[in-house]
Write a structure and sequence with these properties.
Blueprint (H helix, E strand, L loop, with lengths): L10 H9 L4 E8 L4 E7 L6 H16 L32 E3 L25 E5 L3 E8 L7 E8 L5 H14 L4
Parallel strand pairs: 3-4
Antiparallel strand pairs: 1-2, 1-6, 4-5, 5-6
Length: 178
């Protein structure tokens, strides 16, 4: 159990910290296996955190389980298995996976695409861009199964996407679950 003043934030503290970012409209912690929000603060896109959690969990699950988004050099990556490269496709370079309103996505990652205990998802974060907002999903590594992510909803005009990525990564590293 976490003691007060230990400097290690839990779910509520992390979500409140995320809401202090410029342009933050809402933040949640979601289990991408069950699609349930483990915590949420602020407004929900569409007005319903449970529906938002379920929908973003589908996206996160697809990306986390995708072998094509494995890190460069991973034997399960398409280039290593002999799959043809698609001209104009983004390669796994260590950048975040990003999806814009047109559905174009890029990739990043660290390890094996098959998420198992003590393994990290192949992608660090996802960025979905709409006409008026950014949705940043940051995968959280945990000692048990790493099936959760932080979701930050930013106003596009007021939010600072670069700062949000940095701060969400720091929050994910410090987050204590359990």
């Amino acid at each position: 159990m976490q003691e007060r003043g230990s400097g290690v934030p839990g779910i509520d503290e992390s979500l409140l910290e995320a809401m202090r970012l410029p342009g933050a409209q809402g933040a949640s912690l979601v289990d991408w296996i069950s699609g349930l929000a483990l915590g949420a603060v602020g407004d929900a896109p569409g007005g319903d955190w449970e529906a938002t959690a379920a929908e973003t969990a589908e996206l996160a699950r697809h990306v986390a389980e995708s072998g094509s988004l494995a890190a460069a050099g991973d034997p399960k990556a398409p280039a290593a298995t002999g799959a043809p490269e698609v001209p104009g496709a983004l390669a796994a370079t260590g950048a975040s996976a990003a999806t814009d309103a047109t559905g174009v996505s890029g990739a990043s990652g660290a390890t094996d695409p098959a998420v198992a205990p003590e393994k990290e998802p192949p992608v660090e974060d996802l960025i979905a861009t709409t006409a008026d907002a950014y949705h940043l999903l940051r995968f959280v590594s945990t000692p048990f199964d790493s099936t959760v992510f932080l979701h930050l909803w930013l106003d596009r005009a007021e939010g600072n996407l670069a700062l949000a990525r940095i701060r969400l990564a720091e929050m994910a590293d410090r987050l204590v679950l359990g």
